[in-house]
Amino acid sequence: MTRGKECIVPKVSIVNAREDLQQAFGRALELIGLGDLIQPGQTVLLKPNRHGGHGYTSPDVLEAGAKWAFSKGAGEVWIGDGPVWSMVGDSLNEYFRSSGLLDACERSGAKPLDFHAGEYRLFRPNHPDLPETIGFSEYLYQADVVISVPLMKTHFNTLVTLGIKNLKGCMRPIDKKAFHEIELNHAIAEMCRMLAPIITVHLMDATVAYEGMGPGSGTPVEMGLLLASQDVVALDSVACDLMGIDPQQARLIRFCADRGVGIMDLDRIERVGEDPDLHRRRFRLPYEALADEFPDLCIISDNACSGCAMNLFRALEIARSCGQTVTCQTVVIGPSVDTEEQTLLVGRCTKPGWDCARHVKGCPPSVDSIREGLTDIPHGPGMPKS
C-alpha cells in the first residue's frame, strides 16, 4: 500500500482552482512530489467532509479527484465518509443524494461508500485521551491510496475544521459521540496520531470556504483554491494563515504538533504554487458571528457535541430569517448546567437541570424543537419543551 511519510521540511501546495478543477487537483499533488502516487490498478479512496449540514466538500472537487485518479490508472475509486453520528440508513442516503455526492460518483465512475454501513477495525489504545476501544472504517485499510479531502471552514468547538478534524469521520458513530464526553481537542489529536500513517495525502477544498457560525451555518467565502500536503498539521497551519488565524489559536493543531504528527511553525513549512499573500483574508470566527447576530444571547457550550451545536445554530438561523425573537438570555448545550431564569437547556447532556429550568429533550433535539424553545419561553422553571 502507498502511505505518506513524515517530511522534515513539509511542503504545502496552494493552487488556483477557478478554471480546470481536474488539472488543479493533479497540479496540487505534483507540486508536493506526488503526481505519480497512483499505480495502475490500485484502489483509491477519497474521504471528503460530509458532516451532515451545508458546507461540505464540493461535489465538483470530488468528481475532479476521481477523474484524475482514473486518468492515472486507478482500477477503482471510492468516495466515502461517515458523517455526523446521528445520521444512519435512509437519512444518510438522502443526505448523500441531496449534497451531490451520488451525482459526483455517477459522473466520474466512482463508487459511493457509507462508512456507517461497513465494518470497523477495532483498537484498544490504552490512552487517557481516548475511549477504551475505538474503531476506524475498514475501507481505509482496503484502499491502496487514501486521499483525505477536507473543506476549509470555521468551527464553534475547535475554531477551525480542516484536515485534522476531517479524519473524525473515519470513526464509528459511537466513538464520535464518546469524544464529546472527554476533552474533544485532545481526543481528536490522539486519533489523528493513530491515523497519520494510514492517510497517503491531504488535499483541501478551498474553492468555496465557510466562515462564521460553522460547521453547520457558516457563510460562503469564495477562495478558488486547492491545498495539498502529506503533513496534515502543516496543511492546517497554512490554511489558518490564509484564513487570517494564528495556528497557535487552534488548540487542535497545537496538540497534534505536540504529539509529533507534523509541523505547525510556518517558518519551517515550504509553501509552493500560489503566493499566499495574494489570497489571505480574515475569516469571521463562530462566536464573533453569533455575537453580531444575537448580541443579547449567551451560549454555554463546554464539551458540547456537534449534533446539538449544529441544530442550535440552524434553529437560530431559521428564527432570524423568520423574524422571530429569541426570548431566552442563555442557552446551554453540553454537560454544563445553568438554571437561572430565562435559561434554555438543550439536549440530553443537560438533563441534571431539567427539574429546575426550561429544556428541550433529545440527543440531539430537532431543529424545530430548539427553535420553539428559543422563541417561546414561558415564565417559571421546569417546563419542558419536547
Radius of gyration: 21 Å
Uncertain parts? 1-7, 378-386
| Strand and helix order | EHEHEHHEEEHEEEHHHEEHHEHEHEEEHE
| Helix content, binned percent | 25-40%
Q: On the 0-100 scale, what is the average pLDDT?
A: 89
User: What is the tally of beta strands?
Assistant: 17
Terminal-residue CA separation: 50 Å
Estimated structural class: alpha/beta
- How would you characterize the largest beta sheet? 10 strands, mixed
Please characterize this protein's 3D structure:
This protein has 13 helices and 17 strands. The protein has 386 residues and is α/β, with parallel strands linked by helices. Strand 16, helix 13 and strand 17 (384-385) form a beta-alpha-beta unit. The longest helix has 16 residues, at 306-321. The radius of gyration is 21 Å and the shape is globular.
Short description:
The chain has helices at 21-30, 59-71, 89-98, 101-108, 139-142, 163-166, 173-179, 184-195, 232-242, 251-258, 286-293, 306-321, 367-375; strands at residues 11-16, 43-48, 76-81, 111-114, 120-123, 134-137, 145-149, 151-155, 159-161, 201-213, 217-229, 270-273, 298-300, 330-333, 343-346, 358-360, 384-385.
List keywords for this structure.
single chain, 386 residues, alpha/beta, 10-stranded mixed β-sheet, 5-stranded parallel β-sheet, 23% strand, disordered C terminus
Task: Note the topology.
Blueprint: E1 11-16, H1 21-30, E2 43-48, H2 59-71, E3 76-81, H3 89-98, H4 101-108, E4 111-114, E5 120-123, E6 134-137, H5 139-142, E7 145-149, E8 151-155, E9 159-161, H6 163-166, H7 173-179, H8 184-195, E10 201-213, E11 217-229, H9 232-242, H10 251-258, E12 270-273, H11 286-293, E13 298-300, H12 306-321, E14 330-333, E15 343-346, E16 358-360, H13 367-375, E17 384-385
Parallel strand pairs: 1-12, 2-3, 2-7, 3-4, 7-10, 8-10, 13-14, 14-15, 15-16, 16-17
Antiparallel strand pairs: 1-11, 5-6, 8-9, 10-11
Helix pairs in contact: 1-2, 2-4, 8-10, 12-13
